[in-house]
Design brief:
Strand order of the largest sheet: 3-5-6-7-8-9-10-11-12-15-16-17-18-19-20-21
Distance between the termini: 27 Å
Strand content: over 45%
Number of helices: 2
Number of strands: 21
Structural class: mainly beta
Helix content: under 10%
CATH architecture: Beta Barrel
Oligomer: single chain
Shape: globular
CATH superfamily: Porin
Number of domains: 1
Order of helices and strands: HEEEEEEEEHEEEEEEEEEEEEE
Radius of gyration: 22 Å
Protein backbone atom coordinates (compact mmCIF):
# COMPACT_ATOMS: atom_id res chain seq x y z
CA UNK A 1 0.00 0.00 0.00
CA UNK A 2 2.82 2.43 0.85
CA UNK A 3 4.49 1.78 -2.51
CA UNK A 4 1.19 2.41 -4.34
CA UNK A 5 0.63 5.69 -2.50
CA UNK A 6 4.18 6.91 -3.23
CA UNK A 7 3.94 5.97 -6.90
CA UNK A 8 0.55 7.67 -7.19
CA UNK A 9 1.94 10.88 -5.66
CA UNK A 10 4.90 10.81 -8.03
CA UNK A 11 2.60 10.35 -11.02
CA UNK A 12 0.43 13.27 -9.92
CA UNK A 13 3.40 15.55 -9.44
CA UNK A 14 4.85 14.69 -12.83
CA UNK A 15 1.50 15.40 -14.42
CA UNK A 16 1.79 18.93 -13.06
CA UNK A 17 5.21 19.45 -14.64
CA UNK A 18 3.64 20.32 -17.98
CA UNK A 19 2.65 23.60 -16.32
CA UNK A 20 6.02 24.10 -14.67
CA UNK A 21 8.62 26.67 -15.51
CA UNK A 22 12.24 25.66 -15.12
CA UNK A 23 14.22 27.56 -12.55
CA UNK A 24 17.60 27.95 -14.28
CA UNK A 25 19.50 28.33 -11.01
CA UNK A 26 20.07 25.96 -8.16
CA UNK A 27 17.80 26.33 -5.18
CA UNK A 28 19.42 28.95 -2.96
CA UNK A 29 20.59 27.88 0.42
CA UNK A 30 17.55 28.98 2.36
CA UNK A 31 19.42 29.14 5.64
CA UNK A 32 20.62 32.70 5.06
CA UNK A 33 23.64 31.85 2.96
CA UNK A 34 24.43 34.48 0.40
CA UNK A 35 28.03 33.42 -0.18
CA UNK A 36 29.21 31.59 -3.28
CA UNK A 37 31.27 29.05 -1.34
CA UNK A 38 29.45 26.02 0.05
CA UNK A 39 30.20 23.13 2.37
CA UNK A 40 29.24 19.47 2.02
CA UNK A 41 26.47 20.14 4.54
CA UNK A 42 24.80 22.37 1.91
CA UNK A 43 24.39 19.49 -0.55
CA UNK A 44 20.72 18.99 0.32
CA UNK A 45 19.97 22.55 -0.85
CA UNK A 46 22.31 22.82 -3.82
CA UNK A 47 20.18 20.92 -6.31
CA UNK A 48 18.19 21.94 -9.40
CA UNK A 49 14.46 22.26 -8.79
CA UNK A 50 11.34 22.94 -10.84
CA UNK A 51 8.68 25.40 -9.69
CA UNK A 52 5.10 24.28 -10.34
CA UNK A 53 3.14 27.35 -11.34
CA UNK A 54 2.19 29.31 -8.25
CA UNK A 55 2.27 26.32 -5.90
CA UNK A 56 4.68 26.72 -2.95
CA UNK A 57 6.33 23.41 -3.84
CA UNK A 58 9.47 22.76 -5.90
CA UNK A 59 10.37 19.44 -7.48
CA UNK A 60 13.56 17.86 -8.70
CA UNK A 61 15.44 14.62 -8.77
CA UNK A 62 18.00 12.53 -10.58
CA UNK A 63 18.22 9.17 -12.32
CA UNK A 64 21.03 6.67 -12.90
CA UNK A 65 21.15 3.99 -15.60
CA UNK A 66 24.16 1.69 -16.13
CA UNK A 67 25.62 -1.18 -18.11
CA UNK A 68 28.42 -3.31 -16.74
CA UNK A 69 30.38 -6.44 -17.59
CA UNK A 70 32.43 -7.46 -14.57
CA UNK A 71 33.93 -10.78 -13.52
CA UNK A 72 35.72 -12.25 -10.51
CA UNK A 73 38.43 -14.85 -11.08
CA UNK A 74 37.16 -15.40 -14.60
CA UNK A 75 33.51 -15.86 -13.60
CA UNK A 76 31.07 -13.22 -14.85
CA UNK A 77 27.33 -12.71 -14.95
CA UNK A 78 27.72 -11.28 -18.44
CA UNK A 79 26.10 -8.09 -19.63
CA UNK A 80 24.10 -6.37 -16.90
CA UNK A 81 21.72 -3.50 -17.60
CA UNK A 82 20.62 -1.60 -14.51
CA UNK A 83 18.30 1.24 -13.62
CA UNK A 84 19.91 1.58 -10.24
CA UNK A 85 17.87 4.42 -8.85
CA UNK A 86 15.53 7.29 -9.46
CA UNK A 87 15.37 9.88 -6.73
CA UNK A 88 12.71 12.53 -6.26
CA UNK A 89 13.24 15.80 -4.36
CA UNK A 90 10.34 17.78 -2.91
CA UNK A 91 10.96 21.15 -1.23
CA UNK A 92 8.66 23.80 0.14
CA UNK A 93 8.85 27.13 1.93
CA UNK A 94 6.27 26.72 4.68
CA UNK A 95 6.71 30.26 5.97
CA UNK A 96 9.50 32.71 6.56
CA UNK A 97 12.50 30.85 7.98
CA UNK A 98 10.68 27.49 7.97
CA UNK A 99 11.51 25.08 5.14
CA UNK A 100 10.72 21.49 4.25
CA UNK A 101 12.93 19.24 2.12
CA UNK A 102 12.63 15.58 1.25
CA UNK A 103 14.36 12.91 -0.82
CA UNK A 104 12.53 9.77 -1.93
CA UNK A 105 14.51 7.05 -3.69
CA UNK A 106 13.24 4.23 -5.90
CA UNK A 107 15.78 1.48 -6.52
CA UNK A 108 15.88 -1.59 -8.78
CA UNK A 109 12.97 -0.55 -10.95
CA UNK A 110 10.76 0.37 -7.99
CA UNK A 111 11.25 -2.81 -5.96
CA UNK A 112 12.57 -0.74 -3.10
CA UNK A 113 11.21 2.66 -2.08
CA UNK A 114 12.77 4.57 0.78
CA UNK A 115 12.56 8.03 2.30
CA UNK A 116 16.20 9.02 2.61
CA UNK A 117 15.64 12.54 3.88
CA UNK A 118 12.58 14.44 5.06
CA UNK A 119 13.16 17.33 7.42
CA UNK A 120 11.66 20.57 8.63
CA UNK A 121 14.33 23.25 9.02
CA UNK A 122 13.75 26.26 11.25
CA UNK A 123 16.15 29.20 11.22
CA UNK A 124 16.74 31.15 14.41
CA UNK A 125 20.12 32.54 13.36
CA UNK A 126 22.61 31.57 10.61
CA UNK A 127 24.63 29.86 13.34
CA UNK A 128 21.62 28.25 15.05
CA UNK A 129 19.07 26.26 13.05
CA UNK A 130 16.82 23.41 14.14
CA UNK A 131 16.27 20.34 11.97
CA UNK A 132 13.76 17.60 12.70
CA UNK A 133 12.57 14.59 10.72
CA UNK A 134 14.47 11.89 8.85
CA UNK A 135 18.01 13.23 8.99
CA UNK A 136 20.99 12.25 6.84
CA UNK A 137 23.69 11.54 9.41
CA UNK A 138 26.76 13.67 8.51
CA UNK A 139 29.52 11.08 8.83
CA UNK A 140 32.29 11.81 6.35
CA UNK A 141 31.32 13.71 3.21
CA UNK A 142 29.77 11.18 0.82
CA UNK A 143 26.78 10.29 3.02
CA UNK A 144 25.28 13.75 2.55
CA UNK A 145 26.76 14.57 -0.84
CA UNK A 146 25.84 11.33 -2.66
CA UNK A 147 23.82 12.46 -5.72
CA UNK A 148 24.87 10.45 -8.77
CA UNK A 149 25.31 13.38 -11.20
CA UNK A 150 28.00 14.88 -8.96
CA UNK A 151 30.39 11.97 -9.41
CA UNK A 152 32.48 10.69 -12.34
CA UNK A 153 32.05 7.03 -11.39
CA UNK A 154 29.14 4.63 -11.92
CA UNK A 155 29.67 2.97 -8.52
CA UNK A 156 29.52 4.61 -5.14
CA UNK A 157 32.69 4.29 -3.00
CA UNK A 158 33.07 0.83 -1.46
CA UNK A 159 33.97 2.29 1.94
CA UNK A 160 30.73 4.29 1.89
CA UNK A 161 28.45 1.43 0.81
CA UNK A 162 30.03 -1.67 2.37
CA UNK A 163 31.78 -0.34 5.47
CA UNK A 164 29.85 2.77 6.43
CA UNK A 165 26.15 2.62 5.62
CA UNK A 166 25.81 4.88 2.56
CA UNK A 167 22.78 7.20 2.61
CA UNK A 168 22.49 6.35 6.30
CA UNK A 169 19.57 8.33 7.72
CA UNK A 170 17.43 8.13 10.85
CA UNK A 171 14.57 9.95 12.52
CA UNK A 172 15.68 12.56 14.99
CA UNK A 173 16.52 16.18 15.76
CA UNK A 174 19.57 18.36 15.65
CA UNK A 175 21.18 21.76 15.30
CA UNK A 176 23.33 23.12 12.50
CA UNK A 177 24.74 26.40 11.31
CA UNK A 178 27.58 28.13 9.54
CA UNK A 179 29.35 31.44 9.22
CA UNK A 180 31.99 32.91 6.97
CA UNK A 181 34.45 35.77 6.91
CA UNK A 182 36.66 36.78 4.01
CA UNK A 183 38.08 33.56 2.53
CA UNK A 184 37.06 31.34 5.45
CA UNK A 185 33.85 29.44 6.11
CA UNK A 186 32.95 27.37 9.17
CA UNK A 187 30.02 25.00 9.70
CA UNK A 188 28.82 22.50 12.27
CA UNK A 189 26.10 19.87 12.68
CA UNK A 190 24.96 17.88 15.72
CA UNK A 191 22.10 15.37 15.65
CA UNK A 192 20.54 12.89 18.05
CA UNK A 193 18.72 10.22 16.07
CA UNK A 194 17.76 6.59 16.01
CA UNK A 195 20.72 4.32 15.47
CA UNK A 196 22.18 0.90 14.79
CA UNK A 197 20.93 -2.47 15.99
CA UNK A 198 22.07 -6.07 16.50
CA UNK A 199 22.02 -6.65 12.74
CA UNK A 200 25.53 -5.23 12.43
CA UNK A 201 26.90 -8.44 14.04
CA UNK A 202 23.97 -10.78 13.27
CA UNK A 203 23.60 -10.78 9.50
CA UNK A 204 23.93 -12.95 6.40
CA UNK A 205 27.41 -11.53 5.73
CA UNK A 206 28.71 -13.38 8.82
CA UNK A 207 30.91 -10.49 9.80
CA UNK A 208 30.70 -7.06 11.38
CA UNK A 209 28.79 -5.11 8.76
CA UNK A 210 27.24 -1.72 9.54
CA UNK A 211 25.10 -1.48 6.34
CA UNK A 212 23.05 -4.49 7.54
CA UNK A 213 21.26 -2.15 9.96
CA UNK A 214 19.58 -0.37 7.03
CA UNK A 215 17.31 -3.37 6.39
CA UNK A 216 15.28 -2.85 9.56
CA UNK A 217 12.51 -0.25 9.13
CA UNK A 218 11.88 -0.34 12.89
CA UNK A 219 14.86 1.95 13.43
CA UNK A 220 12.61 4.85 12.37
CA UNK A 221 10.29 4.12 15.30
CA UNK A 222 12.34 2.61 18.11
CA UNK A 223 15.83 1.53 19.05
CA UNK A 224 19.08 2.99 20.29
CA UNK A 225 20.06 6.64 20.24
CA UNK A 226 22.88 7.72 17.95
CA UNK A 227 24.91 10.92 18.29
CA UNK A 228 26.41 12.33 15.09
CA UNK A 229 28.50 15.50 15.04
CA UNK A 230 30.59 17.23 12.42
CA UNK A 231 32.64 20.37 12.07
CA UNK A 232 33.94 21.65 8.75
CA UNK A 233 35.98 24.57 7.55
CA UNK A 234 36.68 25.81 4.04
CA UNK A 235 39.19 28.24 2.66
CA UNK A 236 38.55 29.57 -0.83
CA UNK A 237 42.07 28.60 -1.93
CA UNK A 238 42.83 25.48 0.09
CA UNK A 239 39.51 23.60 0.11
CA UNK A 240 37.30 22.03 2.76
CA UNK A 241 38.31 19.87 5.71
CA UNK A 242 35.69 18.00 7.73
CA UNK A 243 35.93 16.01 10.96
CA UNK A 244 32.98 13.91 12.09
CA UNK A 245 31.97 11.43 14.78
CA UNK A 246 29.09 8.97 15.12
CA UNK A 247 28.50 6.73 18.10
CA UNK A 248 26.13 5.12 20.57
CA UNK A 249 24.76 1.79 21.79
CA UNK A 250 23.85 -0.73 19.12
CA UNK A 251 22.67 -3.88 20.88
CA UNK A 252 19.35 -4.85 22.47
CA UNK A 253 20.50 -4.89 26.06
CA UNK A 254 17.05 -4.70 27.67
CA UNK A 255 13.61 -6.01 26.71
CA UNK A 256 10.43 -5.30 28.72
CA UNK A 257 12.56 -4.22 31.65
CA UNK A 258 14.63 -7.41 31.65
CA UNK A 259 18.37 -6.91 31.23
CA UNK A 260 19.66 -9.19 28.46
CA UNK A 261 23.22 -7.98 27.97
CA UNK A 262 25.58 -5.18 28.85
CA UNK A 263 25.43 -2.05 26.72
CA UNK A 264 27.66 -2.37 23.68
CA UNK A 265 28.79 0.64 21.72
CA UNK A 266 30.22 1.56 18.37
CA UNK A 267 32.27 4.62 17.54
CA UNK A 268 32.98 5.97 14.06
CA UNK A 269 35.48 8.72 13.29
CA UNK A 270 35.85 10.18 9.81
CA UNK A 271 37.92 12.81 8.07
CA UNK A 272 37.16 14.23 4.62
CA UNK A 273 38.83 16.75 2.37
CA UNK A 274 38.10 18.27 -1.02
CA UNK A 275 39.74 20.99 -3.06
CA UNK A 276 40.26 22.23 -6.60
CA UNK A 277 43.80 23.06 -7.62
CA UNK A 278 44.10 26.50 -9.24
CA UNK A 279 45.01 26.97 -12.89
CA UNK A 280 44.81 23.25 -13.82
CA UNK A 281 41.37 22.81 -12.11
CA UNK A 282 42.17 19.34 -10.75
CA UNK A 283 39.54 18.28 -8.21
CA UNK A 284 40.63 16.11 -5.29
CA UNK A 285 38.06 14.47 -3.00
CA UNK A 286 38.95 12.08 -0.21
CA UNK A 287 37.43 10.41 2.83
CA UNK A 288 38.81 8.06 5.49
CA UNK A 289 36.95 6.44 8.40
CA UNK A 290 37.82 4.40 11.47
CA UNK A 291 35.23 2.16 13.19
CA UNK A 292 35.48 0.64 16.67
CA UNK A 293 32.81 -1.84 17.79
CA UNK A 294 32.35 -3.67 21.08
CA UNK A 295 31.87 -7.22 19.76
CA UNK A 296 30.90 -9.85 22.38
CA UNK A 297 33.79 -12.13 23.38
CA UNK A 298 31.62 -15.15 22.54
CA UNK A 299 31.81 -14.26 18.82
CA UNK A 300 34.54 -15.71 16.63
CA UNK A 301 37.35 -13.50 15.38
CA UNK A 302 35.82 -13.24 11.91
CA UNK A 303 33.64 -10.51 13.46
CA UNK A 304 35.98 -7.57 13.53
CA UNK A 305 35.99 -4.98 16.31
CA UNK A 306 38.06 -2.52 14.27
CA UNK A 307 37.52 -1.41 10.68
CA UNK A 308 39.02 1.27 8.49
CA UNK A 309 38.84 2.44 4.91
CA UNK A 310 38.26 5.25 2.49
CA UNK A 311 38.63 6.55 -1.03
CA UNK A 312 40.43 9.21 -3.03
CA UNK A 313 39.02 10.69 -6.25
CA UNK A 314 41.15 12.70 -8.66
CA UNK A 315 39.32 14.43 -11.52
CA UNK A 316 41.17 16.31 -14.26
CA UNK A 317 39.30 18.27 -16.97
CA UNK A 318 41.15 17.80 -20.26
CA UNK A 319 39.10 20.23 -22.33
CA UNK A 320 36.04 22.42 -22.06
CA UNK A 321 34.37 23.83 -25.15
CA UNK A 322 31.31 23.70 -27.35
CA UNK A 323 30.56 20.10 -28.36
CA UNK A 324 27.55 18.94 -30.41
CA UNK A 325 25.62 22.09 -29.54
CA UNK A 326 26.44 22.13 -25.82
CA UNK A 327 28.27 25.39 -25.17
CA UNK A 328 30.17 24.43 -22.02
CA UNK A 329 30.72 20.70 -22.40
CA UNK A 330 33.59 19.15 -20.41
CA UNK A 331 35.58 15.95 -20.81
CA UNK A 332 37.26 14.65 -17.64
CA UNK A 333 39.88 12.01 -16.92
CA UNK A 334 39.51 10.56 -13.43
CA UNK A 335 40.78 7.89 -11.10
CA UNK A 336 39.41 6.49 -7.83
CA UNK A 337 41.63 4.69 -5.32
CA UNK A 338 39.88 2.64 -2.61
CA UNK A 339 40.82 0.54 0.39
CA UNK A 340 38.67 -1.19 3.02
CA UNK A 341 39.66 -3.46 5.91
CA UNK A 342 36.68 -4.98 7.71
CA UNK A 343 38.79 -6.72 10.36
CA UNK A 344 41.91 -4.90 11.51
CA UNK A 345 44.20 -7.02 13.67
CA UNK A 346 45.77 -10.47 14.10
CA UNK A 347 44.48 -13.88 15.22
CA UNK A 348 44.90 -14.43 18.95
CA UNK A 349 46.15 -18.00 18.56
CA UNK A 350 48.75 -17.58 15.80
CA UNK A 351 49.48 -13.87 15.53
CA UNK A 352 48.84 -14.07 11.78
CA UNK A 353 47.19 -11.16 10.07
CA UNK A 354 43.40 -11.24 9.71
CA UNK A 355 42.39 -10.62 6.10
CA UNK A 356 38.92 -9.53 4.98
CA UNK A 357 40.15 -6.49 3.08
CA UNK A 358 40.26 -5.13 -0.44
CA UNK A 359 41.75 -2.42 -2.56
CA UNK A 360 40.53 -1.13 -5.87
CA UNK A 361 41.64 1.17 -8.69
CA UNK A 362 39.05 2.66 -11.02
CA UNK A 363 40.20 4.86 -13.93
CA UNK A 364 37.43 6.71 -15.76
CA UNK A 365 36.63 9.05 -18.58
CA UNK A 366 33.49 11.16 -18.43
CA UNK A 367 31.65 13.64 -20.60
CA UNK A 368 29.50 16.41 -19.15
CA UNK A 369 27.34 18.19 -21.76
CA UNK A 370 26.11 20.33 -18.86
CA UNK A 371 26.92 20.45 -15.17
CA UNK A 372 23.73 18.50 -14.40
CA UNK A 373 24.36 15.48 -16.66
CA UNK A 374 27.28 13.07 -16.89
CA UNK A 375 28.19 10.19 -19.22
CA UNK A 376 30.83 8.02 -17.58
CA UNK A 377 32.92 5.04 -18.67
CA UNK A 378 34.88 3.20 -15.97
CA UNK A 379 37.19 0.24 -15.57
CA UNK A 380 37.55 -1.49 -12.19
CA UNK A 381 40.52 -3.55 -11.03
CA UNK A 382 40.05 -4.98 -7.53
CA UNK A 383 41.84 -7.43 -5.23
CA UNK A 384 39.97 -8.84 -2.22
CA UNK A 385 41.26 -11.17 0.50
CA UNK A 386 39.17 -13.45 2.69
CA UNK A 387 39.35 -13.51 6.49
CA UNK A 388 42.19 -16.07 6.45
CA UNK A 389 44.32 -13.73 4.34
CA UNK A 390 44.59 -16.17 1.45
CA UNK A 391 45.62 -15.07 -2.03
CA UNK A 392 43.19 -12.40 -3.20
CA UNK A 393 40.34 -12.88 -5.63
CA UNK A 394 40.67 -10.63 -8.68
CA UNK A 395 37.78 -8.60 -10.02
CA UNK A 396 37.86 -6.62 -13.22
CA UNK A 397 35.50 -5.19 -15.78
CA UNK A 398 33.96 -2.23 -17.52
CA UNK A 399 30.91 -0.12 -16.79
CA UNK A 400 29.12 2.66 -18.61
CA UNK A 401 26.44 4.89 -17.18
CA UNK A 402 24.42 8.05 -17.51
CA UNK A 403 23.30 10.10 -14.53
CA UNK A 404 21.33 13.33 -14.68
CA UNK A 405 19.31 15.69 -12.60
CA UNK A 406 15.85 16.45 -13.90
Amino acid sequence: MIKKIVLFCIACMYAQLTFAQIDSTLLNNVIADTGKQTLNMDAVYNRPFLGIGKLPVSLGGYAEVNWQHIGTDGVSEGHQFQMRRMTLFVASTISKKIKFLSEIELEEGGKEISVEFASIDVEFHPLLNLRGGIVMNPIGSFNQNHDGPRWEFTDRPISATQMLAATWSNAGFGLFGKTYKNNWMFGYEAYLTGGFNDDIIDNEMNKTFLPAAKVSAERFEEGNALLTTKIATRHSKFGELGLSYMGGNYNTYKNDGIVLDEKRQLHVFAMDYNTTLPKINTTITGEWAWINIDVPSSFTQQYGNKQRGGFLDIVQPIFKRKILGWDKAVVNLSCRLEYVDWNVGTFNETGDNIGDNLWSVMPAISFRPTAQTVFRFNYRYQLQKDVLDNDPSKTGGFSFGISSYF
